[in-house]
Predict the 3D structure of the following.
Amino acid sequence: MTYPILLNGKINPVLFVFGAVSILFGVIDLLFFQNLNRTRENWLNIHLSKMISGYVATVTAFVVNQWALGIWGWFIPTIFGNIYLIYWLIKLNRKKL
Protein backbone atom coordinates (compact mmCIF):
# COMPACT_ATOMS: atom_id res chain seq x y z
CA MET A 1 0.00 0.00 0.00
CA THR A 2 1.29 3.42 -0.83
CA TYR A 3 0.71 6.48 1.24
CA PRO A 4 -0.36 9.25 -1.16
CA ILE A 5 0.41 12.12 1.20
CA LEU A 6 4.02 10.95 1.51
CA LEU A 7 4.54 10.27 -2.19
CA ASN A 8 2.81 13.12 -3.95
CA GLY A 9 1.45 15.41 -1.22
CA LYS A 10 -2.21 14.56 -1.85
CA ILE A 11 -4.63 13.37 0.82
CA ASN A 12 -6.85 10.40 0.03
CA PRO A 13 -10.29 11.52 1.25
CA VAL A 14 -11.47 8.00 2.08
CA LEU A 15 -8.44 7.26 4.25
CA PHE A 16 -8.68 10.68 5.86
CA VAL A 17 -12.38 10.35 6.76
CA PHE A 18 -12.06 6.78 8.09
CA GLY A 19 -8.99 7.75 10.09
CA ALA A 20 -10.69 10.83 11.56
CA VAL A 21 -13.82 8.87 12.49
CA SER A 22 -11.71 6.13 14.12
CA ILE A 23 -9.83 8.68 16.21
CA LEU A 24 -13.11 10.35 17.19
CA PHE A 25 -14.62 7.04 18.34
CA GLY A 26 -11.45 6.24 20.28
CA VAL A 27 -11.61 9.58 22.12
CA ILE A 28 -15.31 9.07 22.86
CA ASP A 29 -14.55 5.62 24.31
CA LEU A 30 -11.74 7.01 26.48
CA LEU A 31 -14.05 9.71 27.84
CA PHE A 32 -16.84 7.21 28.44
CA PHE A 33 -14.66 4.71 30.29
CA GLN A 34 -13.50 7.35 32.75
CA ASN A 35 -16.86 7.13 34.52
CA LEU A 36 -16.86 3.52 35.77
CA ASN A 37 -20.36 3.63 37.31
CA ARG A 38 -21.95 4.58 34.00
CA THR A 39 -19.80 2.00 32.22
CA ARG A 40 -20.88 -0.81 34.56
CA GLU A 41 -24.56 0.07 34.15
CA ASN A 42 -24.53 0.21 30.35
CA TRP A 43 -21.78 -2.18 29.29
CA LEU A 44 -24.12 -4.67 27.60
CA ASN A 45 -25.85 -1.95 25.56
CA ILE A 46 -22.49 -0.53 24.51
CA HIS A 47 -21.07 -3.94 23.65
CA LEU A 48 -24.16 -4.92 21.67
CA SER A 49 -24.19 -1.61 19.79
CA LYS A 50 -20.54 -1.89 18.83
CA MET A 51 -20.76 -5.55 17.80
CA ILE A 52 -23.87 -5.08 15.65
CA SER A 53 -22.41 -1.91 14.13
CA GLY A 54 -19.24 -3.78 13.22
CA TYR A 55 -21.30 -6.55 11.67
CA VAL A 56 -23.34 -4.04 9.66
CA ALA A 57 -20.13 -2.39 8.44
CA THR A 58 -18.73 -5.76 7.38
CA VAL A 59 -21.91 -6.77 5.55
CA THR A 60 -22.05 -3.36 3.87
CA ALA A 61 -18.45 -3.70 2.68
CA PHE A 62 -19.18 -7.17 1.31
CA VAL A 63 -22.38 -6.09 -0.47
CA VAL A 64 -20.76 -3.01 -2.01
CA ASN A 65 -17.76 -4.97 -3.28
CA GLN A 66 -19.47 -8.18 -4.42
CA TRP A 67 -22.89 -7.18 -5.67
CA ALA A 68 -23.74 -4.49 -8.20
CA LEU A 69 -26.55 -2.77 -6.31
CA GLY A 70 -25.33 0.78 -6.84
CA ILE A 71 -26.20 3.23 -4.09
CA TRP A 72 -28.68 0.75 -2.59
CA GLY A 73 -25.78 -1.48 -1.59
CA TRP A 74 -24.79 1.17 0.92
CA PHE A 75 -28.24 1.70 2.38
CA ILE A 76 -29.90 -1.72 2.54
CA PRO A 77 -27.53 -3.32 5.11
CA THR A 78 -27.55 -0.12 7.15
CA ILE A 79 -31.35 0.06 7.27
CA PHE A 80 -31.79 -3.58 8.26
CA GLY A 81 -28.86 -3.41 10.69
CA ASN A 82 -30.26 -0.36 12.44
CA ILE A 83 -33.68 -1.97 12.75
CA TYR A 84 -32.02 -5.05 14.28
CA LEU A 85 -29.96 -2.89 16.66
CA ILE A 86 -32.97 -0.84 17.78
CA TYR A 87 -34.96 -4.04 18.38
CA TRP A 88 -32.29 -5.45 20.72
CA LEU A 89 -31.69 -2.18 22.54
CA ILE A 90 -35.42 -1.82 23.23
CA LYS A 91 -35.57 -5.44 24.37
CA LEU A 92 -32.61 -4.96 26.74
CA ASN A 93 -33.86 -1.67 28.14
CA ARG A 94 -37.30 -3.15 28.76
CA LYS A 95 -35.72 -5.73 31.10
CA LYS A 96 -34.18 -2.93 33.20
CA LEU A 97 -37.54 -1.30 33.89
In short: The chain has two domains: 1-34, 43-97.
